[in-house]
Amino acid sequence: MEQLPEDWERGIVIVAHPDDIEYGAAAAVARWTRQGKDIRYVLVTSGEAGIAGLPPGESGPLREAEEIAAAKSVGVGEVEFLGYPDGRVEESLALRRDLAAAIRRHRPEMVVLFNFGDGWAPGYANSADHRAVGRAALDAISDAGNEWIFPDLADLPIWSPRWAAVMGSKPTHAVDVTATIEPAVESLIAHRRYLEALSPDPVPDQARAIVDMSTGPIDGFPADRATGFELYYFGG
Questions:
Q1: Nearest CA to 65 among 40, 49, 47, 89?
Q2: How many angstroms separate the CA atoms of 56 and 41, rounded?
Q3: Which Gene3D superfamilies is this protein grouped with (predicted)?
Q4: Who contacts 152 (Cβ-Cβ below 8 Å, separation ≥6)?
Q5: CB within 8 Å of 79: residues ≥ 6 apart
Q6: Which residue, 136, 52, 144, is CA-closest to 102?
Q7: Handedness of CA 64, 68, 74, 79 (dihedral sign)
Q8: Which residues of 46-73 are buried (b: 16+ CB within 10 A; e: fewer)?
Q9: Would you kindly state where each structural domain of the chain is located, as residue ranges?
Protein backbone atom coordinates (compact mmCIF):
# COMPACT_ATOMS: atom_id res chain seq x y z
CA MET A 1 0.00 0.00 0.00
CA GLU A 2 1.70 3.19 -1.22
CA GLN A 3 1.53 6.69 0.22
CA LEU A 4 -0.80 8.96 -1.77
CA PRO A 5 1.25 11.63 -3.57
CA GLU A 6 1.35 14.91 -1.65
CA ASP A 7 3.65 16.96 -3.87
CA TRP A 8 0.84 19.27 -4.91
CA GLU A 9 -0.62 22.55 -3.65
CA ARG A 10 -4.24 22.79 -4.90
CA GLY A 11 -7.02 20.26 -4.64
CA ILE A 12 -10.79 20.03 -4.94
CA VAL A 13 -13.20 17.48 -3.55
CA ILE A 14 -16.21 16.75 -5.79
CA VAL A 15 -19.16 14.92 -4.23
CA ALA A 16 -22.92 14.61 -4.61
CA HIS A 17 -24.18 15.62 -1.14
CA PRO A 18 -23.38 17.47 2.06
CA ASP A 19 -21.85 14.92 4.50
CA ASP A 20 -20.27 12.76 1.75
CA ILE A 21 -16.85 14.28 2.43
CA GLU A 22 -17.22 13.95 6.18
CA TYR A 23 -18.07 10.27 5.86
CA GLY A 24 -14.77 9.53 4.14
CA ALA A 25 -12.13 12.14 3.39
CA ALA A 26 -12.35 14.86 6.04
CA ALA A 27 -9.42 13.55 8.06
CA ALA A 28 -7.23 13.56 4.95
CA VAL A 29 -8.45 17.06 4.06
CA ALA A 30 -7.50 18.27 7.54
CA ARG A 31 -4.01 16.81 7.05
CA TRP A 32 -3.64 18.59 3.72
CA THR A 33 -4.82 21.98 4.92
CA ARG A 34 -2.37 21.71 7.83
CA GLN A 35 0.33 21.23 5.19
CA GLY A 36 -0.76 24.55 3.67
CA LYS A 37 -2.57 23.10 0.68
CA ASP A 38 -5.50 25.02 -0.87
CA ILE A 39 -8.50 22.64 -0.74
CA ARG A 40 -11.95 23.54 -2.05
CA TYR A 41 -15.26 21.67 -2.11
CA VAL A 42 -17.68 21.28 -5.04
CA LEU A 43 -21.05 19.71 -4.22
CA VAL A 44 -23.39 18.79 -7.03
CA THR A 45 -26.56 18.96 -4.87
CA SER A 46 -27.54 20.65 -1.64
CA GLY A 47 -28.79 17.40 -0.10
CA GLU A 48 -32.31 18.80 0.11
CA ALA A 49 -33.98 15.37 -0.10
CA GLY A 50 -31.87 13.91 2.69
CA ILE A 51 -33.85 14.57 5.88
CA ALA A 52 -37.09 12.68 6.44
CA GLY A 53 -39.96 14.97 7.41
CA LEU A 54 -38.17 18.18 6.45
CA PRO A 55 -39.27 19.67 3.10
CA PRO A 56 -36.52 20.32 0.53
CA GLY A 57 -37.08 24.08 0.68
CA GLU A 58 -36.07 24.04 4.33
CA SER A 59 -33.60 21.19 4.21
CA GLY A 60 -31.45 22.53 1.35
CA PRO A 61 -30.33 25.80 2.99
CA LEU A 62 -29.84 24.00 6.32
CA ARG A 63 -27.65 21.32 4.80
CA GLU A 64 -25.62 23.90 2.85
CA ALA A 65 -24.96 25.76 6.11
CA GLU A 66 -23.96 22.53 7.84
CA GLU A 67 -21.54 21.70 5.02
CA ILE A 68 -19.94 25.15 5.13
CA ALA A 69 -19.43 24.75 8.90
CA ALA A 70 -18.05 21.24 8.40
CA ALA A 71 -15.58 22.53 5.83
CA LYS A 72 -14.30 25.21 8.22
CA SER A 73 -13.60 22.53 10.83
CA VAL A 74 -10.94 21.05 8.55
CA GLY A 75 -9.57 24.31 7.16
CA VAL A 76 -11.62 24.66 3.96
CA GLY A 77 -13.08 28.09 3.27
CA GLU A 78 -14.54 27.74 -0.22
CA VAL A 79 -17.60 25.54 -0.82
CA GLU A 80 -19.50 25.60 -4.12
CA PHE A 81 -22.97 24.12 -4.72
CA LEU A 82 -24.01 23.40 -8.31
CA GLY A 83 -27.75 23.13 -7.59
CA TYR A 84 -28.60 19.76 -9.17
CA PRO A 85 -31.69 18.01 -7.72
CA ASP A 86 -30.84 15.71 -4.82
CA GLY A 87 -31.67 12.09 -5.59
CA ARG A 88 -32.21 12.75 -9.31
CA VAL A 89 -28.70 13.44 -10.62
CA GLU A 90 -28.02 11.91 -14.03
CA GLU A 91 -24.65 11.06 -15.54
CA SER A 92 -25.11 13.53 -18.38
CA LEU A 93 -23.15 15.77 -20.72
CA ALA A 94 -24.57 18.75 -18.84
CA LEU A 95 -23.11 17.47 -15.56
CA ARG A 96 -19.75 16.72 -17.20
CA ARG A 97 -19.70 20.24 -18.61
CA ASP A 98 -20.48 21.86 -15.25
CA LEU A 99 -17.84 19.78 -13.49
CA ALA A 100 -15.26 20.51 -16.20
CA ALA A 101 -16.03 24.21 -15.70
CA ALA A 102 -15.52 23.84 -11.95
CA ILE A 103 -12.18 22.14 -12.51
CA ARG A 104 -11.09 24.95 -14.81
CA ARG A 105 -12.20 27.57 -12.28
CA HIS A 106 -10.41 26.01 -9.32
CA ARG A 107 -7.39 24.61 -11.25
CA PRO A 108 -6.58 21.69 -8.93
CA GLU A 109 -3.66 19.34 -9.23
CA MET A 110 -5.53 16.70 -7.20
CA VAL A 111 -9.24 15.90 -7.55
CA VAL A 112 -10.81 13.82 -4.77
CA LEU A 113 -13.97 11.86 -5.58
CA PHE A 114 -16.41 9.70 -3.61
CA ASN A 115 -16.97 6.00 -4.24
CA PHE A 116 -18.90 5.66 -7.51
CA GLY A 117 -19.00 1.89 -7.73
CA ASP A 118 -22.25 -0.03 -7.83
CA GLY A 119 -21.97 -1.02 -4.18
CA TRP A 120 -20.31 -0.26 -0.84
CA ALA A 121 -19.76 -3.91 -0.03
CA PRO A 122 -21.31 -7.19 -1.18
CA GLY A 123 -25.07 -6.79 -0.85
CA TYR A 124 -25.04 -3.01 -0.21
CA ALA A 125 -26.00 -0.84 -3.20
CA ASN A 126 -24.45 2.59 -3.69
CA SER A 127 -26.53 5.75 -4.18
CA ALA A 128 -27.55 6.64 -7.74
CA ASP A 129 -26.26 10.18 -7.15
CA HIS A 130 -22.87 8.90 -5.98
CA ARG A 131 -22.53 6.75 -9.09
CA ALA A 132 -23.57 9.52 -11.48
CA VAL A 133 -21.44 12.25 -9.91
CA GLY A 134 -18.29 10.17 -9.55
CA ARG A 135 -18.36 8.81 -13.08
CA ALA A 136 -19.18 12.19 -14.61
CA ALA A 137 -16.45 13.86 -12.55
CA LEU A 138 -13.83 11.32 -13.64
CA ASP A 139 -14.69 12.09 -17.27
CA ALA A 140 -14.79 15.83 -16.56
CA ILE A 141 -11.13 15.75 -15.51
CA SER A 142 -10.16 14.90 -19.07
CA ASP A 143 -12.81 17.24 -20.49
CA ALA A 144 -11.33 20.18 -18.55
CA GLY A 145 -8.05 19.80 -20.43
CA ASN A 146 -9.59 19.56 -23.90
CA GLU A 147 -10.51 22.77 -25.71
CA TRP A 148 -12.89 21.08 -28.16
CA ILE A 149 -15.26 18.92 -26.07
CA PHE A 150 -17.12 21.87 -24.51
CA PRO A 151 -16.24 24.88 -26.71
CA ASP A 152 -18.77 27.03 -24.85
CA LEU A 153 -16.33 26.98 -21.91
CA ALA A 154 -13.72 28.84 -23.96
CA ASP A 155 -13.75 31.76 -21.51
CA LEU A 156 -12.23 29.39 -18.91
CA PRO A 157 -8.64 28.39 -19.77
CA ILE A 158 -8.17 24.64 -20.12
CA TRP A 159 -6.73 22.84 -17.13
CA SER A 160 -5.45 19.29 -16.58
CA PRO A 161 -5.20 17.91 -13.03
CA ARG A 162 -2.44 15.42 -12.31
CA TRP A 163 -4.43 12.89 -10.30
CA ALA A 164 -7.84 11.78 -9.11
CA ALA A 165 -8.15 9.96 -5.77
CA VAL A 166 -11.36 8.02 -5.13
CA MET A 167 -12.26 7.59 -1.45
CA GLY A 168 -14.19 4.61 -0.22
CA SER A 169 -13.19 2.52 -3.22
CA LYS A 170 -10.64 -0.31 -3.46
CA PRO A 171 -7.57 1.51 -2.13
CA THR A 172 -4.26 1.50 -3.94
CA HIS A 173 -2.81 4.35 -1.84
CA ALA A 174 -3.33 5.71 1.65
CA VAL A 175 -2.82 8.79 3.83
CA ASP A 176 -1.79 8.77 7.50
CA VAL A 177 -4.56 10.62 9.36
CA THR A 178 -3.57 9.69 12.90
CA ALA A 179 -3.07 13.35 13.82
CA THR A 180 -6.29 14.67 12.26
CA ILE A 181 -9.03 12.43 13.66
CA GLU A 182 -10.44 15.11 15.97
CA PRO A 183 -11.07 17.77 13.29
CA ALA A 184 -12.67 15.06 11.17
CA VAL A 185 -15.05 14.21 14.02
CA GLU A 186 -15.85 17.91 14.51
CA SER A 187 -16.60 18.30 10.81
CA LEU A 188 -19.13 15.46 10.92
CA ILE A 189 -20.71 16.82 14.11
CA ALA A 190 -21.49 19.96 12.09
CA HIS A 191 -24.13 17.89 10.26
CA ARG A 192 -26.15 17.85 13.45
CA ARG A 193 -29.68 18.07 12.04
CA TYR A 194 -28.93 15.41 9.44
CA LEU A 195 -27.48 13.00 12.01
CA GLU A 196 -30.33 13.62 14.45
CA ALA A 197 -32.71 12.40 11.75
CA LEU A 198 -30.71 9.21 11.24
CA SER A 199 -30.44 7.99 14.80
CA PRO A 200 -31.49 8.80 18.37
CA ASP A 201 -27.89 8.30 19.50
CA PRO A 202 -25.99 11.45 20.56
CA VAL A 203 -24.56 13.22 17.53
CA PRO A 204 -20.95 13.25 18.86
CA ASP A 205 -21.13 9.48 19.41
CA GLN A 206 -22.46 8.91 15.90
CA ALA A 207 -19.76 11.12 14.40
CA ARG A 208 -16.92 9.42 16.22
CA ALA A 209 -18.18 5.95 15.32
CA ILE A 210 -18.41 6.88 11.63
CA VAL A 211 -14.94 8.45 11.55
CA ASP A 212 -13.47 5.49 13.44
CA MET A 213 -15.01 3.11 10.91
CA SER A 214 -13.59 5.02 7.92
CA THR A 215 -10.08 5.65 9.30
CA GLY A 216 -8.83 2.39 10.70
CA PRO A 217 -5.49 0.77 9.96
CA ILE A 218 -4.96 -0.43 6.37
CA ASP A 219 -3.04 -3.61 5.60
CA GLY A 220 0.44 -2.84 4.31
CA PHE A 221 0.41 0.84 5.36
CA PRO A 222 2.40 1.93 8.43
CA ALA A 223 -0.11 4.13 10.28
CA ASP A 224 -2.46 3.61 13.21
CA ARG A 225 -5.21 5.51 11.39
CA ALA A 226 -5.38 5.89 7.62
CA THR A 227 -7.71 6.84 4.78
CA GLY A 228 -7.49 4.78 1.61
CA PHE A 229 -7.91 5.98 -1.97
CA GLU A 230 -7.86 4.48 -5.45
CA LEU A 231 -5.49 6.68 -7.44
CA TYR A 232 -5.92 7.59 -11.13
CA TYR A 233 -3.13 9.30 -13.10
CA PHE A 234 -3.82 12.00 -15.67
CA GLY A 235 -0.34 13.44 -16.17
CA GLY A 236 -1.31 17.11 -16.08
A1: 47
A2: 21
A3: LmbE-like
A4: 97
A5: 40, 41, 43, 64, 67, 68, 71
A6: 144
A7: positive
A8: bbbbbbeebebeebbebbbebbbbbbeb
A9: 2-233
The string of pLDDT tens digits covering residues 82-138 is 999 999 999 999 999 999 999 999 999 999 999 999 887 778 899 999 999 999 999
- Determine the Cα–Cα distance for residues 75 and 209; give it in Å rounded to an integer: 22
The sign of the torsion formed by the CA atoms of 147, 150, 152, 155 equals: negative
The proportion of the chain whose per-residue pLDDT surpasses 90, expressed as a percent, equals 93
Residue 228 has φ and ψ, to the nearest 5°, of: -100, 150
DSSP strand pairing (173-176 vs 2-3)? parallel
2-233 topology per CATH: Rossmann fold (3.40.50)
Name 39's bridge partners: 11
